[in-house]
């Protein structure tokens, strides 16, 4: 009866098996980071292959067996859900710090180390309020908006964008954001398509893609019409094959399954009434029966079908139409039907990137469409995620107008200042000085590693002694671009190595770091910045999670081999 037994894995938190599971998970996360980060090939259980470098897409495609890794994945997900960014960062910070703590024995119990980490993290989080870390966002120019978007775009390698593409796209994203933002945030619909030409553009209104064959006399008539365009919207299939509609936001309506013919008969009665109203456009989320298509065409009504969920919601918002979700229950009298109508101001034919579109416009609508191109289908999906992430970052910036230096400079500044503060406070901890220094260095290494500075091969990484920013060899400015070589010389500073050749942190012995400037440098257009709120939350969430996870005594789970 051995097959009925469930074998259970018992794993102490500091067992070598758990540390090695943690290490593999961290390596997967780490390999995605930054412009140098590689593309992951993920093959799911169903054999579906995905190429990705985005943490949100990666996480959806991997399965983890260790419950602690599953928990860390959930923490990463909660960071992504809240900010759409810094998910990988959170994952790397947690796994690096846990791995350091659990793989070293410095003569302290795990709970004792956890309480030191808790104390250090409160010092670290208070450093975020320094004038030179929390930089006020300035909305008098678009420079800071541009640099936020550029920072996000340039860290994603798989979108297949060149420098020139990024330049063009980040202007489009900021333009789309500004054009739809008044007192409230509007909607930017993101359309990413495969194309050889990469130029992106923003259109105020909604773009509906059509084929060359769809360009008809009816379409020309509507585009040339003076006065507003009336529109009726359906969010059901108009074929009779599936008349049930399930939607998240509305109630579920199930109708009797009838033959296609009787559906068409019933629908035609309604459409005869609709034609009487002299409307211009029928828009439908799903497929429309050919008989109905032909009828509408003969009556000179433009049909926009298969719009999809996003576009249907946008048309509902833009036109003010009430979507019809049942033929049977729809009012047939002219007054009732008229109350469901919406309007747009103009229809235009647009040709962009060798594709044709109908543009629906209405002034003051706060809806825009951003069209971007990618070299292949996978890249297009990736790009759509990244553009949405950029737009959400811009919205976040409007609510919390603060940024921090990007490209690892914030982490370097924090790490250097932490060294000084932690050791000064030595009396507050119940441990020896060398035990405290070990804990400090683990936290420092974990932060630098989350910022993309790993100990392997980073001997050319330096920090300046004036601002404490990160530098790579032979650069004119620090990694984020805020500090120039001249500024360091003017402050009589020098550059110090961060790691030695063996990957050990060199910050302990340096006394020259105690007098860092807290003067806030000014943000320029090419500065790499991150959102304050996103970064602060990611660090806080990671450190809190680490402290909580260190309280686990034993991991118990069903063996994955069963
Ligand atoms: Zn910098």
Automatic annotation (TrEMBL):
InterPro entries: Cpn60/GroEL/TCP-1 (IPR002423), GroEL-like_apical_dom_sf (IPR027409), GROEL-like_equatorial_sf (IPR027413), MKKS (IPR028790), TCP-1-like_intermed_sf (IPR027410). GO terms for cellular component: cytoplasm; kinociliary basal body; nucleus. Gene3D superfamilies: GroEL (3.50.7.10), GroEL-like equatorial domain (1.10.560.10), TCP-1-like chaperonin intermediate domain (3.30.260.10). One of its GO terms (molecular function) is unfolded protein binding. One of its GO terms (biological process) is developmental process. Transmembrane segments: none annotated. This is McKusick-Kaufman/Bardet-Biedl syndromes chaperonin.
């Amino acid at each position: 009866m051995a097959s009925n037994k469930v074998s259970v894995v018992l794993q102490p938190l500091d067992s070598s098996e758990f540390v090695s599971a943690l290490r593999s998970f961290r390596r997967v996360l780490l390999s995605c980071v930054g412009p140098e980060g590689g593309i992951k090939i993920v093959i799911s259980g169903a054999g579906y292959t995905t190429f990705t470098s985005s943490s949100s897409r990666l996480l959806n495609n991997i399965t983890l067996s260790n419950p602690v890794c599953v928990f860390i994945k959930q923490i990463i997900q909660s960071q992504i859900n809240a900010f759409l960014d810094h998910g990988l960062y959170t994952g790397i910070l947690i796994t690096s710090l846990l791995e350091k703590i659990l793989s070293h024995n410095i003569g302290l119990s795990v709970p004792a180390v956890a309480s030191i980490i808790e104390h250090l993290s409160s010092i670290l989080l208070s450093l975020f309020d320094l004038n030179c870390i929390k930089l006020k966002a300035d909305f008098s120019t678009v420079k800071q908006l541009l640099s936020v978007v550029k920072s996000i775009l340039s860290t994603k390698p798989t979108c297949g964008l060149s420098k020139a593409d990024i330049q063009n796209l980040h202007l489009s994203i900021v333009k789309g954001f500004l054009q739809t933002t008044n007192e409230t945030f509007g909607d930017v619909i993101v359309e990413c398509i495969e194309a050889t030409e990469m130029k992106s553009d923003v259109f105020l209104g909604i773009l509906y893609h059509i084929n060359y064959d769809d360009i008809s006399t009816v379409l020309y008539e509507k585009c040339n019409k003076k006065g507003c365009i009336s529109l009726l919207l359906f969010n059901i299939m108009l074929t009779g094959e599936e008349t049930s509609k399930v939607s998240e936001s509305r109630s579920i309506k199930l109708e009797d399954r009838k033959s296609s013919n009787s559906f068409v008969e019933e629908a035609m009665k309604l459409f005869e009434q609709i034609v009487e109203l002299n409307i211009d456009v029928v828009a439908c989320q799903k497929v429309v029966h050919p008989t109905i298509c032909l009828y509408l065409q003969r009556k000179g009504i433009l049909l926009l079908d298969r719009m999809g969920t996003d576009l249907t919601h946008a048309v509902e918002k833009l036109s003010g139409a009430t979507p019809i979700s049942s033929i049977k229950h729809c009012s047939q009298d002219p007054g009732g039907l008229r109350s469901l109508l919406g309007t747009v101001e103009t229809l235009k034919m647009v040709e962009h990137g060798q594709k044709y579109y109908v543009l629906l416009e209405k002034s003051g609508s706060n809806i825009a469409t951003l069209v971007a191109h990618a070299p292949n289908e996978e890249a297009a999906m990736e790009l759509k995620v990244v553009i949405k992430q950029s737009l959400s970052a811009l919205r976040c910036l409007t609510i919390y107008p603060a940024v921090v230096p990007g490209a690892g400079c914030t982490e370097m500044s924090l790490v250097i200042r932490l060294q000084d503060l932690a050791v000064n406070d030595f009396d507050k901890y119940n441990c020896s000085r060398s035990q405290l220094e070990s804990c400090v260095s683990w936290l420092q290494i974990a932060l630098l590693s989350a910022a993309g500075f790993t100990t392997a091969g980073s001997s050319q990484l330096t920090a300046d002694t004036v601002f404490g920013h990160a530098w790579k060899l032979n650069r004119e400015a620090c990694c984020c671009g805020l500090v120039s070589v001249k500024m360091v010389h003017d402050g009589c500073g020098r550059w110090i190595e961060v790691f030695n050749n063996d990957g050990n942190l060199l910050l302990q012995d340096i006394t020259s770091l105690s007098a860092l400037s807290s003067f806030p440098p000014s943000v320029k257009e090419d500065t790499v910045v991150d959102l304050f709120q996103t970064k602060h939350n990611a660090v806080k969430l990671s450190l809190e999670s680490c402290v909580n996870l260190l309280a686990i005594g034993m991991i118990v789970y069903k063996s994955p081999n069963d």
